[in-house]
Specification:
five-stranded antiparallel β-sheet; 20% strand; single chain; Alpha-Beta Plaits; 2 domains; disordered C terminus; alpha+beta
């Protein structure tokens, strides 16, 4: 049984000089064509990846700008209008998500923290499969919808299934005044005044 090399040699001997030149040209052209095709494919892939990276950088720049501007620092007017009942963050975030064009799957509340006469209520949530514009609008709605609500933590990553989409983990907090203790009156005097009256 003839080997492949013997068959190739027999084929080479049978063909004409012109056909031999064509075979040589094909032997050179085919690898070059494949190399060029692979190069263009890699280049196109790198261009697409760079475009995705550029979009992500733009999104992060917009989000960083929103975060840098953030809500205005608390003023006397904000404190004066601040109530003792905390805002429902679950409802607040659900409405912000609807305005951004997606449904919020839920939030995880955290224990309230009381300090210096104010109560901080916080929740954490995760949003997935959002476009850059949806995430931007969602964060903008959170930060501008109320002066007593702010984003306190934000982590953004690209969706593993769709590089055009973003995922984000965020913590959101709202502030309210600490309610007065039971039986305490706004007109109550300093501690110990009752003992002074009785003496």
């Amino acid at each position: 049984m003839a080997t492949i090399s013997e068959r190739a040699r027999d084929f080479w001997d049978r063909i004409s000089p012109r056909e031999r030149r064509l075979v040589v040209i094909a032997a050179i052209a085919v690898p070059l064509t494949i190399a060029v095709w692979l190069g263009l494919s890699i280049h196109d892939g790198l261009v697409a990846k760079e475009a995705n990276n550029e979009k992500t950088r733009e999104a992060l720049a917009v989000i960083a700008d929103l975060k840098a501007r953030g809500p205005a620092q608390p003023t006397d007017d904000v404190v004066a209008t601040m109530g003792t009942e905390p805002l429902s963050l679950d409802t607040y975030l659900t409405n912000a998500a609807q305005k951004a064009g997606f449904q919020l799957k839920g939030t995880s509340p955290r224990s309230p923290v009381t300090r210096n006469g104010f109560v901080t209520n916080s929740v954490s949530c995760r949003v997935t499969d959002l476009s850059i514009d949806q995430l931007r609008k969602f964060l903008q709605e959170i930060e501008t919808g109320s002066k007593v609500v702010i984003v306190t933590k934000l982590e953004i990553s690209r969706d593993s299934r769709d590089k055009e989409k973003l995922d984000a983990n965020l913590d959101v907090s709202t502030y309210s005044k600490e309610p007065p203790a039971k039986g305490e009156s706004k007109d109550a005097g300093p501690a110990g005044s009752g003992e002074q009256k009785g003496s």
